[in-house]
Amino acid sequence: MDENTAPPVPYVYLYSNGMVHDAQPVKVVSSCNLDIYTFPFDIQNCTFTFNSYIHLAMDIMIFLGKSAENITKKSKNVMTTMGEWELLDITSHKDKYGHDDGQYIDELSFHIRVRRRATLYVVNLLIPSCFLITVDLFSFLLPPQTVDRSSFKMTLILGYTVFLLIMNDLLPITGNTIPLINVFFSLCLALMVTSLLETIFITNLLSGSADFSPLPRWVRVFVLQFLGCLVCLPQKTKEPKGSDIKFSTAMAQRKADEGPPGEMMLVAEGKAVQELRSLGRDLQAIRLQVEQQLCGSKSSKEWIQCCLLKVKPSKVLFIFISVLMYASCSSIMLNCSQPDPPSLLDALRPVFTLSSIRPVMNMSTPTNVSIDFILFGILGVDEKAQLLTTYIWQKLEWRNDFIGWDPDQCGSSRITIPRKLLWVPDVVINEFMEKNSAPFVPYSYVYSDGLVQDEQPVKVVSSCRLDIYTFPFDVQNCSLSFNSYLHRMAAMQIFPTIPVEEILKFSQEVMATMGEWELIGLSVKKLQLPASDGEPYEELRFFVTVRRRATLYVVNLLIPSCFLITVDLLSFLLPPKSIDRSLFKMTLILGYTVFLLIMNDLLPITGETIPLMNVFLSLCLGMMVASLLETILITNLLCGSAHYPPIPRWVRLFVLHFLGRLVGLPQKPRDLEDTVFQNPAAQDIKVSFLVAEDNQAPGPKGPLDEDKALQELRSLGKDLQALHNQLKKQTSGSQSSEEWIQ
Question: Where is coiled-coil annotated (predicted)?
Answer without folding.
Answer: none
